[in-house]
Amino acid sequence: MNLFSASASDKAPSPLAERLRPHRLEEMVGQQHLLGKNGILRSLIEQDQLTSAIFWGPPGTGKTTLARVIAQTTRSHFVSFSAVLQGVKEIREVVAKAQQERNYYGRKTLLFIDEIHRFNKAQQDALLPCVENGDVTLIGATTENPSFEVNSALLSRSRVFVLEPLAAEEIQQLLKRALTASDGLGAQQLTIEDKALEFIADQAHGDARSALNTLEIAAATAAEKVIRHSDAAAAMQKTPLLYDKGAEEHYNVISAFIKSMRGSDPDAAIYWLARMIEAGEDPLFIARRMVIFAAEDVGNADPRALQMAVATQQAVHFIGMPEGRIPLAQAVTYLATAPKSNAAYVAVSEAQKEVRQSAALPVPHHLRNAPTGLMKDLGYGKDYQYAHNQTNSVVTQEHLPEALSGTKYYRPKDSGYEKAIRERLDWWAKIRGRATRDDQNEDT
Question: pTM (2 decimals)?
Answer without folding.
Answer: 0.61
